[in-house]
Amino acid sequence: MVTSIEESPLFFEKPPIPPLAFQKTFSLREWETKRSEGIAPAYCSKLDETETKRLEFLKGAELMGFLNNPGELKPQQLLIADVLNSDQDAFAIQMPRRASKTTTIFLMMLGRCASRPNYQVTFSAQSGVASSRRFREWANLLDRITPPPFDDPFNRPRSKSRMATLFGDDQVFHEDRGFRILRGAANQRIEFANGSSFLVLKPEAEAYRGEAADVSWIDEAQEIDPLQGEDLLAAILPLQDTKPGASLIISGTAGEARTGIFWNYLERARNEDKTIGIVDFAAPENTHWETIEDEDEAMALLQTCHPGIGTLTTIEKMIKNYRSMAKPQWAREYLSIWPETFGTTAIKPESWQHATLKTKKTKPSKMAFGLAIKPGGSAASIVASWRDQYGTAYVEVVDHRQGTAWLPKRMQELTQKYRGSTIAYDDIGEGKATANECAPLQPRVKLKMQTYRETGAGCIQILRDLDRGTIKHFDQISLNEAVMRAGKRDIRGDAGQWLWTTLTPGDDITALDAATRALRNWDQYYAKGAKSEPAGVVIAES
Predict the structure, then answer these.
(1) Among 39, 61, 259, 400, which is least packed by CB within 10 angstroms?
(2) Rounded mean pLDDT, 351-363
(3) pTM (predicted TM-score)
(4) How far is residue 149's CA from residue 333's CA, in Å, rounded to a whole number?
């Protein structure tokens, strides 16, 4: 039985310059004991406890200096190694910040490359810059732990001097450590004497063309745009067909939206997709926000789901971060809580379909309007809303066009035609600019600035009216499409507040945003029991 790293035939011979302060103290006999010392993840797939595979991880740990001192390897690292060693098509690895997720996977990949001939690994992070930065950190540590012995061009054996002259220093293999590091801007990789390689790529589909790999690893995948992620997978997965046993590793922390490739794989693994392995350290999905808002309760919860507490960081540091960060961000990064309002269509299609009117409705003489402009100003919508005597709400798209140049004139027409009506707008960015453009117009444009909290109340009201069957629309294409493309997003730093958001970046949901502002405008100032005239109407000065 192989019991320790030095007994493994898979390892290179001891180099003439050993790793700094290297002590061969970790034995395979300690593996299960050490692994069991950590907290349990929320989700964990099957483990592969094959000793030869574990030795590959320890080889990577040795090369990176993680066997220098007793206790250097953490329980969660051994757990991840056992999961990654299982036979799966893909893996979803989620861990909070400061828990050694990325380092652990790199040790595994490094050890495999060093131990398996012709083994190919590709790596990318959320951006090309991030990928390169991470690679430099690893490369510098490798050089520090196992220094290349031929750094000095004047102190190089003759047998290698000609190769170095012809091909450059990077082309000389340092046999004593078994690998070379290439740091070119367009060629960042670790190449091994056994033919294996660890290649760094940009997270772009084109970068992967022709790069078949045994393992394709995408880190910080929660930051990758959903469309970009789908293109990336479309390039990676076919290449794995040429590599028997090839796998995909997608790792990260909780993101701002329940969408994208990381969330998709994580959710599938949580739902027991047997083709996807998983290690998921996360707080329970049903965690109450009140728990997160209470510092003592939040810290108690943190210690049940963050494997880095007591091993890589301290509760004191976590308290400091807790006090300095917005709570939604802190919950994502340290509790692995994805905003529960993200990722799915906010409005149920069947509810929206049930609210459809096939015939036109006579408009009242006074209505409330809402304005919404797509970020960047590429499109805008104006929607009218009112309630009848029975309390049923109606929303109708008045205008939906490209650009914003048409808005001031159209808004003037509406507030003049429907006397006493106002147009609710968001006094930020594009909305504020449009309000300023309306200021010189005569007759005056009647506007009502609406805060994000007021708009958020309108979002909730629309969902309630849909549940109660007390809202109707006129089957207009622009509004229908906006509803089908809208999810929810939490307002960072403001617990319980949320607004509509696009499920796919770049979508146009201005019709729904405008409808929400319009209905809120009516309910605030025109509905029975409200003031007869809108309070705080901004009337442009002449």
Answers:
(1) 39
(2) 87
(3) 0.62
(4) 41
